[in-house]
Amino acid sequence: xxxxxxxxQIGRLLCLLFMVGILCMNLKxxxxxxxxxxxxxxxxxxxxxxxxxxxxxxxxxSNLNVANNLTITYDNGNGEIAGSLxxxxxxxxxxxxxxxxxxLTSFTRIIVVLHFTRSALNTQTSPPNNVLIxxxxxxxxxxxxxxxxxIYNDAVIPFDSGKIxxxxxxxxxxxxxxxxxxxxxQTKDANMFMxxxxxxxxxxxxxxxxxxxIPSFIISELRTAFIIGFLIYIPFIIIDMVVASTLMxxxxxxxxxxTISMPFKILLFVLADGWNLIIGSLxxxxx
Length: 287
Hints:
mainly alpha, about 70% helix, about 0% strand
C-alpha cells in the first residue's frame, strides 16, 4: 500500500510540475521603451553620445550613428508585401513554372515536331521521351535566351534593387515575352479570340490583351507544328508505299510492310543528316 501511495504522489507531483511549466510558457512579458528624456535607466547622464539623425535613402541610413538605436527594415525597404505572402507567391510561381514554360515559349512547337519525327520513323520509343523532352528544353533555352536576358536586365535587377515596384516589374517583364508571342501568332487566331471576347483590336501589339494573346499564340504554335510534321511525314510515306507495293508484287502478303520499311527509313534519315535538317529548320522558324 505504501508503494502504491508513493507512486500516486509522485505522479501527482509530476503532473503539477508539468502544469506549472505550461503556465510559465504562456506568460506574456511586456517591455516598454522609455521616453526620449535623454536618460537611460537610472543614470542621470545620457549614454547616447551623438544623436543618430535622420535619413531618406538607404545610403544615408548606413552612415548614421545607429549603435544605440534599433532599426527595423522589412520587405527590402519596399513595404508592399508581407514576407509570408511573398513566400506564397513564390511557391505558386514555382508550381506554375512548368505550364508557363510549355505554353509561353517555343517548347510546344519543338516537342510536337520531335514526336512527329519519331512517329514518321516508326521507331516506337527511340529516341525515348526523356531524350526528346531534354532536347526540347535545351532548344527552348537557346531560342528564348535573348528574351529571358532582356527580362532579367530590365525587370528582375531593377526590382531586386528596389528601383521599381512589383507591378512595374511585372509589366516590364511581360513586354519582351508578349513581343515574342506576337511575332509567332497568326492574325486569324488573334482575331478569332478578339471576336469571342468582344474586344476591339487595331492590329497593334499594345492593343491586344494578354488573355487573348496567350491562347492565340498556343493555337498558332500547334498549327505550325502540325504543318511541319506533315512535311516530315511525306518522304517516309513514299518509302512505305514503295515497300508495300514491292512486297505485294512479290506475293509476300503476310509480311508487315512497316517491318521492312523501317530500316530504309533510318538509312534515308541518316544519309540525309535528318536531325541536322529538322532541328536547324525548326529553330530558324522562330527567327
